[in-house]
Structure formats: C-alpha cells, structure tokens
Amino acid sequence: MTWRRAALAAVALVAAVGGWRWWHQRPPYDPEALHLRSSLEFVTYDEAQAALGSAYQAPVVSNGDQLVLGRVSWQPPPVPLNGGHFSLFLVDKRTYLKPPVFAVAAPQESVGMGSAGTDRRIADRYPWLRGAGGVQVGEHEWYSGGSRLAIVDAGASPVTFVALFPHLERQFRDLPIASAPVTLPDLLLALVYQGPDDQVYWAQRLQG
Length: 208
Known about the structure:
Blueprint lengths: L2 H23 L11 E7 L1 H8 L13 E8 L11 E8 L8 E4 L6 E4 L4 H7 L9 E4 L2 E3 L4 E4 L7 E7 L21 E8 L5 E8 L1
Antiparallel strand pairs: 1-2, 2-9, 3-8, 3-10, 4-9, 5-8, 6-7, 10-11
C-alpha cells in the first residue's frame, strides 16, 4: 500500500468513527415530544405519606427537616427506551448539592435511587446542571453524597416522589448533601435522557 492509499484509508476511518459517534450521540427524539409537566411543593410527613400511598414509606423526619413533594409526568415517548433511562435530578442551586433520600411511588424495578460516576458527563455538558456531577474532593476524585432517580420504565409516568432535606447540626454541615433550610426558588428540577451506554442525549430544566 502506498502512502497515498494509507492516507486515504486513515481519512476514511476517521470519517467512519466520526459518523458513528454522531449517530451514537444523536437523541431519538427531543424533550418537547414528551410534553413534560412537573410540580414541587413542601409537605408535612402525613401529606407526603398520603401522596405516596400505603404501599410506600415517606422519609422519617426530625425537627428542622423538610420534605419536598414532586410530580413529573410525560406522554409516551415516540420510541422505547431500549436500555436507556431518564435521570431525575433535584439540586439545591446555592450549593449544587442533591438530597440524600427519596421515596418514590413506583416499583424499584421501574424507578431506582442512587448516583453514578457517569453523572459527571451531564455536569460537563450542561453547566447549569453542575450539581449532577457531585463534589470534587481531589484533583481526579469526585464524591456524591446525594441521590437522583433513575427511571428505566417509560411507562412509569406520572412519577411521584418525596425528597428529604435534613437539618444538619453544625458539626455535620460539611457533608456533601443538600440540607434544610431551603425554599422552592432554591431548587432546580431537571430530567436527563441517557442512552444504553449512558451517553447523554439531552437535559431539560423542569423547575428552577
């Protein structure tokens, strides 16, 4: 193979890889297709329990703790998730931290709670959602003490959840979790659509 053929082959390979990456990152649909609706409100423990229903347990509260009731709904997506998922983030915009505990009126196989290292991709792509990526504690080390919801069943709509914002005593206020007191304008609610390889298709601001 001459150098010219080798160069042409290299160019073709780069073009093929670039095309695959474009296709791999291309969202199957935009957020507008879901006609998303959402709400947030403060509730008491009894109100939270009533909203979740008897099959689910609201977070237990102590003096100074706050509970936020959220609801997110969408129309059936144009195509199935096919191994992808929605990530639902509730972030305190003042500190870029997430609450530590959620209760959800949905089966665990449909909606889960936790965090993932790949959430940093979301924060890198969307600076307004930097709270998705956790807290940097070293040059190459990140830590997330908060949680987000992972929705793997597109039929789970509407999702009703209750987030706990605990009141922290002074000696615990350095913990990387969102805590009380908060106000509704302090909070950011966002839905992120991720593909089967955790590629980030889009992020949509719902509240805040």
